[in-house]
Design brief:
Structural class: alpha+beta
Oligomer: single chain
Family: Belongs to the SCO1/2 family.
Largest sheet: 7 strands, mixed
GO biological process, one term: mitochondrial respiratory chain complex IV assembly
GO molecular function: copper chaperone activity; copper ion binding
Number of strands: 9
CATH architecture of the largest domain: 3-Layer(aba) Sandwich
CATH superfamily of the largest domain: Glutaredoxin
Shape: elongated
Number of domains: 2
Radius of gyration: 52 Å
Mean pLDDT: 76
Number of helices: 8
Helix content: 40-55%
Distance between the termini: 113 Å
Strand content: 5-15%
CATH class of the largest domain: Alpha Beta
Order of helices and strands: HHHEEEHEHEHEEEEHH
GO cellular component, one term: mitochondrial inner membrane
Domain Thioredoxin: 118-286
Amino acid sequence: MLRTRFFRGASPLLRSGVVRGPVCCRTVGQSFRFLSVTSNVNQQIEDSVKSKKKPLSRLPIGGSEQSSSQRVASDSIEFTTWKAAALFVVVGGTLYYFFSKEKKRLEAEKEAEANRGYGRPVVGGPFNLINDDGEPFTEKNLVGKWSILYFGFTHCPDICPDELDKLGLWLNSLKKNHGIEMQPIFVTCDPARDSPAVLKQYLKDFHPDIVGLTGTYDQVKSACKQYRVYFSTPPDVKPGQDYLVDHSIFFYLMDPEGQFVEAMGRNYDEKSGVDKIIEHVKTFVPREEREKRKGKWYSFLFE
């Protein structure tokens, strides 16, 4: 078809004599072959380009695919590094808080254990008294509960009432705010005037849980000696004569095993007294548990 059209287009030239004889045929044949080869080459180039060309949606924007992959990898590494650093800070802070708190607790337990570790307690021991109901009361009544003892006398004009009022505030705060129940005990240093009935009447003005203890002079003196309580009465006191009793001013905190824990003086106010008691309650470890710990690998913490 192409050749026919070509000759038709060239026939006027042949007829006009511009192109003649063999020259015309050779020229036409060479032109046809050139056009055919050129067409084939162009088709091959187009097919090659199409086969290598990738969809625009997969081409990276702003650079080659390799550079884009490198940027993605770099961003991923930076993000991973940031997460690792944040995790390290959180975990490190948590561990520091835990071990700091645990260290304080262990130190408090070691101190409490040291107070028990030298045989017989420095403060406290056997005694034999009666309560304000006339019933026997000994050191065995201290076992099984936290107790706090105060030594005074009912005729005390100011110090004893003030301290017993403060004790009542401690008891209310411990029970209401912290769920800690105590056994408060008032031991008289003046058994000559403080009978069970007198104690009972006197203690009505203070916290209802306070138990009054009394006994004979020798029994009271022995109990005071066990707790290292100093007291004295004037010599040659006549019956019915009013007098004051000089005595130590401390609260004696005893643990549920009946062991002395802390002597709390007048410097403890409503808040600091409660805090001190809570501190001892939280760090208290029963004897059975202490014995078990001594057989563990971390027993060196209690040495």
